[in-house]
């Protein structure tokens, strides 16, 4: 395997909701999502799930250009519409769900999104297991976003293990497999990454501006939110900007970002 092939990096995107009618930082307009996917397809990207990319990484067999579309939380309202959009470009996706809310009948709620749980409860409804089975049957992946969406780095060892293991077990019971995790708020220190491996995950992913740290249990993603507009949104999809995120300057800014993320608020990555 050539050196260049073994060092290829996939573009891993993180969305939450895609809903043109929802005025929330969690959501981007549908037309913007379509533009992103169409542009990536035209640039020759191959769509894969997160676990597929991880397996290809380990085999040093990644395509020249690959993209992973991920959705955090598992918002029900427009997910099947997102699937139809992705079907048109031939991309699958990975959905990371918060298991205590799946089929609960309750709007999703945790620190940082309480406003939306009360103001727009319909938009905060989670996908159910039946819909998730349909997505898996269509080639999508369902991974864990923990049991209740806490900041994992703030938990003691017992609570951390419970959040990781119980969510994975629940998904395995319902869907047959759960191999990856997205950490709530995009934060995972070394202790959290080690616990994710011990819980049986193949890989985990974060959200942060610096991409220098890229290991199986802390894979970086590019987050796209409602405030990512104009040049900012296209910069996030740019290979050149991606390379800049792997520089020492980006790494130097990391502590400021982590401090902001641990006080749950509007996402910035």
Short description:
With 269 residues, this protein is of the alpha/beta class. It is built from twelve helices and ten strands.
Description of the structure:
With 269 residues, the chain is α/β, with parallel strands linked by helices. The chain has a single domain (3-261), classed as TIM Barrel, CATH 3.20.20.370. Helices cover 39% and strands 13% of the residues. The chain is built from twelve helices and ten strands. The chain has helices at 3-6, 30-42, 50-58, 79-89, 114-119, 129-137, 157-175, 190-198, 231-236, 239-244, 248-252, 254-261; strands at residues 11-15, 17-18, 27-28, 46-47, 66-73, 94-97, 141-144, 180-182, 203-205, 222-223. The strands form three sheets. Strands 1, 4, 5, 6, 7 and 10 form a six-stranded parallel beta sheet that branches. The protein has a two-stranded parallel ribbon with strand order 2-3. Strand 5, helix 4 and strand 6 (94-97) form a beta-alpha-beta unit. Helix 2 packs parallel to helix 4. It is globular. It starts with a helix and ends in an 8-residue tail after the last helix. Mean pLDDT is 87; it is low at 256-269.
